[in-house]
Specification:
It is built from 19 helices and 20 strands. The chain is of the alpha+beta class and 603 residues long. It has five domains: 3-88, 3-Layer(aba) Sandwich (GIY-YIG endonuclease), CATH 3.40.1440; 104-244, no CATH class; 252-360, Ribonuclease H-like superfamily/Ribonuclease H (Nucleotidyltransferase, domain 5), CATH 3.30.420.10; 388-536, Nucleotidyltransferase, domain 5 (2-Layer Sandwich), CATH 3.30.420.340; 546-598, DNA polymerase, domain 1, CATH 1.10.150.20. Strands 13, 14, 15, 16, 17, 18, 19 and 20 form an eight-stranded mixed beta sheet that branches. Strands 7-10-9-8-11-12 form a six-stranded mixed beta sheet. Helix 4 crosses helix 10, helix 5 packs antiparallel against helix 9 and helix 15 (511-545) crosses helix 16 (553-563). The protein starts with a helix and ends in a 5-residue tail after the last helix.
């Protein structure tokens, strides 16, 4: 359809709520939007008087047809819009990237509560979060456990109390030694209570209470107890010093900041709990992704749908206009503010400035990396910039557990979510070339299925001419043309040259490329070895348990899953082992006796 025809079709739409989908000449969805009046919104894109610029102009010029879905309310349109964006991932929409979810910190409700990072709020216990990443949550858990000398091992309490000597963490003061009977249950619960207060942000009052408890213990000449309170007090004080307090202690809010220019956009979320900034999350959007009040309202709505938690307040560093009311309907338990003055305005401005700095820093890093890739491409004589590089390595334990690891770099950075492992099935003995060919055949059977299987611009093989020829043979089978270079090592196991199979390129005068190749080789070797070792260990553990009469591979897996490893299984009682599905009391006794006899304490 021409632009005039699109405008005519849009003018015939009703002025009612709904969702519109824009498609290009390849019938691909390139933009999804919503409106409370479809006729007005859709026709505004194609009207003769429209004066679009930048990203919007590119999008409109690409549209050849559109379709609409009518809804009863604008809120229903918002929900449907989010569903379509997730389904089609349109080029011009700002999108929440796929995620494994937002983690929580959980304090269990067991007899001896444990602190852990979990993916969902399910089951009993007390939950804190959600947090922006697993790394953030794990770091907080480590700090809290360290502050109160809580156990970080996998031992089960009270079952494992008194069954062994405390580990090194006890002797260096990082654990109170519950497993060795070095603390009472009351003392342990006291530490858990302190940990909960610290997770809840009650630092100031907690420090004061710890100081009072330290003084009382000292007056009663309980010097070891006083020292423990002193250590906890100092640890909590250090954590408090790292927190950036920006509001009153009772404030629970998320602050959204936005920065956008012709080159792209960034949104920052500052997460305030108990008046302090506890976490931060940053989202980057490409130059093609349209930023508008409508798109940002949809983005924020989808953000909280993914998080599964909405704070009491939401502060916005930018005005959403009429969309603010709609966002309030989508988040009915949240008070939405656009601060105009005072401390809240200062924090909202901080979020916007943070978004700007993050985007500019990311651009600078990208430009630096692009410059290196251009230099690397010139060094290799490539015709295109190698934005996606793949490298392969074979790892094995003798003739067993042969594993191929595939490591991916995108725009010069390791992209771990695209790493792949191939368990080699056709080669029964050490044959790196044959294993490489099998891995490559299975890899290119999926080429371009999705982003993780995109065709590479360059393959770097951990080897010489044999590996290069093997990879090229597989590429020829699939009708693909991808540059392949081998990374040739010297007698010190360091890469000295790159080869295309005929010519060698010395790295002696290119320290930047040498470091890049070295890091790549170390990463692909580490990844392949780790996956192979995991297979070897699983096989070894399962084979040990299957020596017990009445225990097959499935029961062995069930036992290891229930206890987390052979060490915990060995320390479990007969009754605890018998509680595992499929294990009766007689089999449990056999397992207990077998492990006590043959378990290697150094494993």
């Amino acid at each position: 359809m021409t632009r005039e025809e699109l405008y005519g079709a849009a003018r015939s739409l009703p002025a009612t709520p709904g969702v519109y989908i824009m498609r290009n000449s390849a019938d691909r969805v390139i933009y999804v939007g919503k409106s409370k009046a479809l006729r007005n919104r859709v026709s505004s894109y194609f009207a003769p008087y429209a004066n679009h610029v930048g990203k919007t102009l590119h999008m409109v010029n690409s549209v050849v047809r559109f379709e609409v879905y009518h809804t009863a309310t604008e809120l229903e349109a918002l929900v449907l819009e989010n569903q379509f964006i997730k389904q089609y991932m349109p080029r011009y929409n700002i999108k929440l990237k796929d995620s494994s979810g937002y983690p929580y910190i959980r304090v269990s409700d067991d007899e001896y509560p444990r602190i852990s990072v979990v993916n969902k709020r399910e089951g009993g216990g007390v939950y804190y979060g959600p947090y922006a990443s697993h790394g953030t949550a794990k770091g907080i858990v480590a700090s809290v456990k360290g502050a109160f000398a809580l156990p970080s091992c996998t031992k089960r309490f009270p079952a494992d109390i008194g069954k062994g000597r405390p580990c090194l963490n006890y002797h260096i003061g990082r654990c109170g030694g519950l497993c060795g009977g070095k603390m009472t249950k009351a003392d342990y619960m006291d530490r858990i209570a302190g940990a909960k207060r610290l997770l809840g942000g009650d630092c100031t009052a907690l420090i004061k209470d710890l100081e009072e408890q330290m003084n009382r213990a000292a007056e009663n000449m309980e010097y070891e107890r006083a020292a423990a309170y002193r250590d906890s007090m100092r640890a909590v004080a250090k954590i408090k010093d790292k927190q950036h307090v920006v509001a009153a202690p009772e404030v629970e809010a998320d602050v959204f900041g936005l920065y956008s220019d012709d080159g792209g956009s960034a949104a920052t979320v500052l997460i305030i709990r108990s008046g302090a900034i506890r976490d931060r999350e940053v989202f980057f959007f490409g130059a093609d992704e349209l930023i508008s009040p409508s798109s940002m309202a949809s983005f924020i709505s989808g953000y909280y749908k993914l998080r599964g938690f909405v704070p009491r307040e939401l502060w916005l560093g930018y005005d959403l206009g009429e969309e603010t009311e709609l966002l309030g309907e989508a988040l009915p338990k949240c008070r939405i503010l656009i601060p105009k003055r005072g401390e809240k305005k200062a924090v909202a401005d901080m979020a916007c400035n943070n978004a700007k700095e993050q985007l500019l820093h990311k651009r600078a890093e990208n430009e630096k990396q692009t410059g290196f890739l251009a230099s690397f491409a010139a060094f290799l004589g490539l015709e295109v910039l190698p934005e996606r590089i793949e490298s392969y390595d074979i790892s094995n334990s003798g003739d067993e557990h042969i594993t191929a690891g595939m490591v991916v770099l995108e725009k010069g950075r390791f992209c771990k979510r695209h790493y792949k492992t191939f368990n080699i099935k056709e080669s029964e003995a050490q044959d790196d070339v044959g294993a490489t060919m099998e891995a490559l055949r299975r890899r290119f059977a999926h080429v371009d299925e999705d982003d993780s299987w995109a065709c590479p611009d360059l393959i770097l093989a951990d080897g010489g001419v044999g590996q290069i020829n093997a990879i090229r043979a597989v590429l020829e089978e699939y009708g693909l043309s991808v540059p392949v270079f081998g990374m040739v090592k010297d007698e010190h196991h360091k890469t000295r040259t790159l080869t295309d199979g005929e010519n060698e390129l010395s790295l002696n005068k290119r320290q930047d490329i040498f470091v890049f190749i070295y890091k790549l080789q170390e990463e692909v070797h580490r990844f392949a070895l780790a996956r192979m070792d995991r297979r070897r260990r699983n096989t070894a553990r399962n084979s040990i348990l299957t020596k017990v009469k009445g225990v097959g591979s499935k029961k062995a897996e069930e036992l290891l899953r229930a206890f987390g490893g052979l060490g915990a299984l060995k320390n479990a009682s007969v009754e605890e082992i018998a509680a595992v599905k499929g294990i009766n009391e007689d089999t449990a006794r056999l397992i207990k006796a077998f492990l006590e006899k043959s378990f290697d304490k150094d494993d």
